[in-house]
Recover the amino acids of this structure.
């Protein structure tokens, strides 16, 4: 009885730890969009250079994600995640320093910390809670999205009243990161069985299903990062204030959070996730089409994009665990989906901005998003069912220690 009680207590603490980690995986990124004009004006940055503030973390995801399974095999997943949280904390603190070099350097560190968390959380859920993948994926996506929504909504108000302006609005999230570090400290003493759980398979480059999961992850991420980077500017160019545009971005994310809560129930009801993923992707298409046809109805399209975006995020994260044969494959599929997926996502805000510059308007870039959402709807029909099988033999059991 005592052992059962201790095990349940340990699992509850692990869930809380994972949720607090999730709370840190977007807030330091989504607060940038509403402040981009202030950052650009204060530091004298060209638009393309300012856009790097949201592109650099994604490029860091691309570089680091494929390395995470092997790094976790070497040092242990809990230990690696703890180190990543420290790096994330340092990155946020560095962005509080009023200098362009610190702003961009801190952004790279933030990207590195988030990249590790992005890859490890689906694998840890698959390993420790294999029968609750949908529920816990929804929970951590909801926490991640909820905190990100708050970060978007309060960014401009904080910059207007706090000493330091936008520096403080970006740097204040260091407090949440410190809480995550403190809560994760007990996990650093956990056995290193996580290394065994995620190192057993090579990345499934030869699997068509793995590529479909990767494409779904990339396309929904592309949509999210385009929205959080450029939607406030689109709304401001339609005559809205910066604070109003920031709150509409908050609304988009708040609706996404509420939608994500309904996904686990829908997943339990459906035999597979094909229809659900296709319908949610089609809702995203409708939102972009609405912006293209009637941009003045910004409130409505923010809600529609939130309805589709929240569900698509949970599905993209759940696909990593649900399509994997075991926790080992979940780690490999997570690394593949997040590296290639975020490469696609990183291109989104840049191409969107370039199309705006070339066409001197927002219609061409919004049309691009309609095409991306249509492609996501098609990919969803493949990514929503099946199991990714290892195409190659397992990697060797022996993984050199840091000293070897």
């Amino acid at each position: 009885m005592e052992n059962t009680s201790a095990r349940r207590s340990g699992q509850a603490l692990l869930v809380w730890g994972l949720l607090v980690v999730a709370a840190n995986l977007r807030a330091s990124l989504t607060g940038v969009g509403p402040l981009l004009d202030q950052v650009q004006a204060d530091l004298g940055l060209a638009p393309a250079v300012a856009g790097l503030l949201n592109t650099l973390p994604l490029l860091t995801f691309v570089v680091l994600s494929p390395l995470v399974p092997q790094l976790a095999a070497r040092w242990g997943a809990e230990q690696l995640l703890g180190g990543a949280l420290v790096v994330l904390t340092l990155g946020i603190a560095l962005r509080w320093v009023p200098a362009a070099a610190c702003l961009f350097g801190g952004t790279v560190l933030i990207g590195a910390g988030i990249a590790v968390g992005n890859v490890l959380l689906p694998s840890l859920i698959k390993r420790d809670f294999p029968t609750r993948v949908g529920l816990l994926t929804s929970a951590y996506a909801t926490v991640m999205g909820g905190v990100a929504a708050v970060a978007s909504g309060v960014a401009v108000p904080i910059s207007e009243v706090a000493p330091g302006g936008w520096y403080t609005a970006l740097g204040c999230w260091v407090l949440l990161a410190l809480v995550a570090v403190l809560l994760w400290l007990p996990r650093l003493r956990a056995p290193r069985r996580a290394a065994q759980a995620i190192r057993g398979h090579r990345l499934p480059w030869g699997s068509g299903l793995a590529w479909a999961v990767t494409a779904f992850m990339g396309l929904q991420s592309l949509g999210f990062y385009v929205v959080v980077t450029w939607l406030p500017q689109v709304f401001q160019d339609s005559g809205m204030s910066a604070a109003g545009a920031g709150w509409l971005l908050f609304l988009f994310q708040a609706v996404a959070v509420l939608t994500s809560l309904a996904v686990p129930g829908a997943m339990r009801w459906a035999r597979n996730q094909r229809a659900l993923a296709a319908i949610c992707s089609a809702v995203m298409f409708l939102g972009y089409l609405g912006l293209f046809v009637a941009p003045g109805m910004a409130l409505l399209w923010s809600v529609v994009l939130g309805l589709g975006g929240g569900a698509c995020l949970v599905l993209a994260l759940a696909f990593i665990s649900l399509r994997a044969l075991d926790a080992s494959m979940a780690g490999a599929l997570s690394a593949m989906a997040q590296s290639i997926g975020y490469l696609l996502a990183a291109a989104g805000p840049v191409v969107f901005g370039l199309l705006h510059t070339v066409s001197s308007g927002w219609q061409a870039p919004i049309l691009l998003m309609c095409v991306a959402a249509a492609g996501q709807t098609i990919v969803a029909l493949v990514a929503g069912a099946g199991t990714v099988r290892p195409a190659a033999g397992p990697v060797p059991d022996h993984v050199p220690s840091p000293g070897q």
About this structure: Confidence is low (pLDDT under 50) at residues 194-198, 392-404.
